[in-house]
Amino acid sequence: MSAMSDGAARAGSAASSTAGWLGALARTAGIDAQPERIFPKIIDELAERYGAAPALIGACETLSHADLAGRQNRYARWALSRGFGKGDTIALLMRNRPDFLAIWLGLTRAGLRVALLNTHLRARGLAHCIALAAPRLLVVDAELAETLDSAWPHLAAAPALLWQGQRARGETLAQAAAGFSPAPLAANEDPALSVRDDALLIYTSGTTGLPKAARVSHHRIMMWTHWFAGLIEPGPQDRMYDCLPLYHSVGGVVAPGSVLLGGGSVVIRESFSASRFWRDVTETGCTLFQYIGELCRYLASAPPDPFERRHGLRLCMGNGLRPEIWERFRTRFAIPRILEFYAATEGTVSLYNVEGKPGAVGRVPPFMARRSTALIVRHDGETGLPLRDAAGRCIPAAIGETGELLGRLSGRAEHSFEGYTSEGETERKILRDVLAAGDAWMRSGDLMRRDAQGFHYFVDRIGDTFRWKGENVATTEVEAAIGACPGVIEANVYGVEVPGAEGRAGMAAITVTPDFALDTLHATLAEALPAYARPLVLRIVARLDRTATFKQRKAGLVAEGFDPAAIRDPLYLDRDDAYQPLDQDLYRAVAAGRLKL
């Protein structure tokens, strides 16, 4: 590319990013001025405008914009006829399908709060999430009857049940609502709702303990959907490929809601398949893809696919796309634009990489600085808390310095922390007297650093970072170094306790290809990482466990440690400048402190 064309490309990118920011600001500007205008009412407006055009495209059912509005309104009238209303919660346990969105839209239109349950949970884990919501009614996909059965004995108070789908164990919600009108609710039947009212309960992943139920207001739904619609500028010709769980905020609210606002449609799939992905995206005519970074890694590691460059994608948006995968994914599949962002369901701070800088999670442009709630403060690795100065105030991190990201709290709706169903859990997330007496900020639990241009980079989760030989080790940076080694498919890095040693030593569970070589990995890490950051122990596994949103599970691996008597997987210890098999005799020497590490 010539200097002139390179400059033109940069100018075009800058113009595009500015337009994205301005579009997001414009779309969200009027939300507070019309507090009664909640998202289900917008679905009625979209039905009038786009009618028979497809809105939600599932594997077995397609709903037009008119169909979606009609179905949500039937569900709303059914709920009101049964005496449900503001203050009531209904829980929803359902797989990905168009009806999932129609149900929560309809029930929240009637003023209810809908708890979106994780379909991958079972037994005590699922019972815990149901109990947090304390629902009056549980709507269950008939295909998940066995999943519900596993949780039922663990419920102290069992809610009423209503089924949905084929082979149901009784009357279904669809049958119960069939006789009601699909027309928009009239003024005399319209419950008095505001954007400040609760709409959903969405659960955290539970990677650091049991899941928590985050409260999500109608205002939050409006902000999410309208902000992203401004960033991606959807039109009636756009189709979003959505294979993320609909019970989470990104897959179930941000992705579909933002595209529907532009009159486009959403292709809903129950799960992700690397082998079918490109053909499905191509044949369904998708122009947008909502990703989680791990999906991009799976695709970049997959064998060549004849459809991988036949697609019509104009934009991929999501979070968690690691720097070492970004360019491989973009160039191999000819992706025109990547929009990475950082946010949390319950969070008060969000970042957007509108400029498409590889590896960055987002940036606060100068004209948004006063509106931004983001602050990075120095972190104490020993206590897990922000460092404070002699006056008791937190210390802002310098450019390039790693610290915890905080989000400022204020009276503005978009800066408020709506919290969890548990007041105790809510209070634990709030940090007070940060920069001034009486101020309040929300802890993200994430370590980040910021460069001179204002771009933010994710470093690690607090709790995942560990301390070894007096140094803090970020697991994500070690995972990136391991992932760059030939033959490594994936790595999960964590800290393990070593008897007689301070801190935690690094350990990595890795999946590998047949041509993987231990000496190559050792040499790669010796060049890429300081000695204290290199994993002391390797564990080669067949697969790595994940949450439903593709986050790695570390707690089980940490608990198992590195005792060969308890682990069947091959284990290796970094000793004498090489990874050597870790047998029981060697482990006993380490455990007894006879071996210097």
Give a written overview of the molecule.
This protein is α/β, with parallel strands linked by helices. The chain has 3 domains: 15-271, Rossmann fold (3-Layer(aba) Sandwich), CATH 3.40.50; 366-461, Luciferase, Domain 3 (Luciferase, domain 3), CATH 2.30.38; 466-591, 2-Layer Sandwich (GMP Synthetase, Chain A, domain 3), CATH 3.30.300.30. It has 17 helices and 28 strands. The strands form 5 sheets. Strands 2-1-10-9-11-12-13-14 form an 8-stranded mixed β-sheet. Strands 15, 16, 17, 18, 19, 20 and 21 form a 7-stranded antiparallel β-sheet that branches. Strands 6-5-3-4-7-8 form a 6-stranded mixed β-sheet. A hairpin with a 2-residue loop joins strand 22 and strand 23 (471-473). The chain is globular and about 80 Å long. Residues 1-14 have low confidence and may be disordered.
